[in-house]
């Protein structure tokens, strides 16, 4: 009887795995999951409507010191390159009840900000740590998965990582003779 029960449970579990919707896993080189959110200024952000632009998607929180340390670099990069086809969105993972705190933290920054709550951000994995940043090329392909790095992004790292995508009309970062660029992100090699 135990053996039949064990087989039943195993088969039931496998059946559930096959019919349950799989969580999309973000992977570099694959189409990036869509990001839709209401910005704090009332406008809507939809990454699908940003085709032709390079998009930096940053997840953060006000209580996260590394997030706050990284924001000046994100803002400086956004200000310097938005006219070149750069779009950026900083998405707070905090509760909507913290809206005043969130607005206070970003009041001096020019990049768009949204709350994760109520937005469509599934496909970027479980946001168990912040900051985490993703970069999407002009063709909607994920080119940088921030889960692979534990450090914050500096302005030089953003220049190395994102600027080639802005310069290349195809959206891919390639170096000399077609070799993928080696990117140093805050002390980590990629």
Q: How does this structure look, described?
A:
- This protein has 190 residues and is an alpha/beta fold.
- The chain is 29% helix and 19% strand.
- The protein contains 4 helices and 9 strands; from the N terminus they run αβββαβαβββαββ.
- The strands form 3 sheets. Strands 5-4-3-6-7 form a 5-stranded mixed beta sheet, covered by helices on one side. A two-stranded antiparallel ribbon has the order 1-2. A two-stranded antiparallel sheet has the order 8-9.
- α2 (65-81) runs parallel beside α4 (155-167).
- It is globular.
- The N and C termini lie far apart (53 Å).
How much helical structure, as a percent, in the residues?
Answer: 25-40%
Q: Characterize the overall form.
A: globular
Q: In which order are the strands of the major sheet placed?
A: 5-4-3-6-7
Largest β sheet strand count, sense and barrel closure: 5 strands, mixed
Helix-strand topology string: HEEEHEHEEEHEE
**Which blocks of ≥5 consecutive residues have pLDDT under 50?**
1-24, 171-190
Radius of gyration: 19 Å
Amino-to-carboxy terminus distance: 53 Å
């Amino acid at each position: 009887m135990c053996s039949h029960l064990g087989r039943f449970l195993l088969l039931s579990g496998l059946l559930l795995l096959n019919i349950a919707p799989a969580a999309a896993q973000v992977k570099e080189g694959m189409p990036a999951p869509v990001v839709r959110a209401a910005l704090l200024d009332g406008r809507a952000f939809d990454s699908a409507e940003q085709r032709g632009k390079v998009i930096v998607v940053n997840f953060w929180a006000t209580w996260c010191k590394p997030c706050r340390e990284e924001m000046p670099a994100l803002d400086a990069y956004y200000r310097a390159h938005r006219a070149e086809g750069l779009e950026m969105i900083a998405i707070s993972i905090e509760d909507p009840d913290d809206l005043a705190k969130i607005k206070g933290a970003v009041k001096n920054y020019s990049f768009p900000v949204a709350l994760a709550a109520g937005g469509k951000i599934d496909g970027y994995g479980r946001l168990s740590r912040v900051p985490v940043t993703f970069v999407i090329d002009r063709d909607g392909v994920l080119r940088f998965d921030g889960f692979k790095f534990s450090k914050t992004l500096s302005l030089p790292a953003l220049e190395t990582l994102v600027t080639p995508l802005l310069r290349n009309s195809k959206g891919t970062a390639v170096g000399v003779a077609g070799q993928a660029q080696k990117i140093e992100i805050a002390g980590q090699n990629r």
